[in-house]
């Protein structure tokens, strides 16, 4: 049974931090591969303007070239909006009976996890690998020693896509924060300016 890590994100844009985390999980854990699941609409960020699905898909495609254990999933493009992780996981599990899916989640998300739709069902059916992320919240006690939750020593990434978008808007050079193939495309297209 293949074990696949699911790394959800809008990837607007994908940056080196995303790539570092995805590669860490693909190469330093028991996962066979990591799928970057491009999310069209986060239920908690419904009013944000983001690049079209096709453009974010292109940025991610360019970013993961040469990383054999990283793949893209556009499963959420076809599912009803807004996308709920529970529904996406159910859909993937049903259509991939020979694969076991693990949810990759930042520490900030584990704090808000009890607010997710069907969160008990997610944790019942799937393992969760948590990576460090800056946050101000308190991790719920029920998750600290949970048998389905693995706390990983993945690198702490101190950059966000929203910072990158802001810097581009302000005319800063963000080339060093993005995979070079993605940066070239983003720059040619003039995104976020």
Describe the structure.
This protein is an alpha/beta fold. 39% of the residues lie in helices and 18% in strands. It has one domain (2-189): HUPs (Rossmann fold, 3-Layer(aba) Sandwich). The chain contains 9 helices and 6 strands, in the order βαβαβααβααβαβαα. It has a 6-stranded parallel beta sheet, with helices on both faces. Helix 7 links the parallel strand 5 and strand 6. The chain is globular and about 45 Å long. The termini are far apart. The mean pLDDT is 94.
- SSE string, helices as H and strands as E: EHEHEHHEHHEHEHH
CATH architecture: 3-Layer(aba) Sandwich
At the fold tier of CATH, the topology name is Rossmann fold
Unreliable runs: none
The oligomerization state is single chain
The 3D shape can be described as globular
Tell me about the largest β-sheet.
Answer: 6 strands, parallel
The CATH homologous superfamily is termed HUPs
Q: How many domains, as an integer?
A: 1
Side by side, the strands of the main sheet go: 3-2-1-4-5-6
Distance N to C terminus: 45 Å
Query: What structural category do the secondary elements indicate?
Result: alpha/beta
| Name of the CATH first level | Alpha Beta
Rg calculated over all Cα atoms:
16 Å
Strand content: 15-25%
Q: How many strand elements? A: 6
Helical percent range?
25-40%
């Amino acid at each position: 049974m293949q074990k696949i890590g699911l790394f959800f994100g809008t990837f607007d844009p994908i940056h080196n931090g995303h790539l570092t985390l995805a590669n860490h999980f693909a190469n330093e854990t028991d996962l066979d591969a990591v799928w970057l699941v491009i999310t069209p609409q986060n239920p908690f960020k419904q009013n944000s303007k983001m690049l079209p699905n096709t453009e974010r898909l292109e940025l991610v495609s360019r970013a993961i070239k040469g990383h054999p254990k990283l793949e893209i999933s556009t499963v959420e493009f076809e599912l009803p909006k807004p996308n709920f992780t529970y529904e996406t996981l159910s859909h993937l599990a049903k259509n991939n009976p020979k694969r076991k899916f693990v949810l990759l989640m930042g520490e900030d998300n584990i704090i808000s996890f009890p607010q997710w739709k069907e969160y008990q069902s997610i944790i019942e059916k799937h393992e969760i690998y948590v990576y460090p992320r800056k946050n101000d919240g308190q991790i719920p006690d029920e998750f600290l020693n949970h048998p389905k939750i693995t706390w990983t020593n993945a690198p702490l990434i101190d950059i966000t896509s929203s910072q990158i978008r802001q810097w581009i808007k302000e005319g800063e050079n963000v080339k060093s924060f993005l995979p070079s193939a993605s940066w070239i495309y983003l720059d040619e297209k003039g995104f976020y300016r």
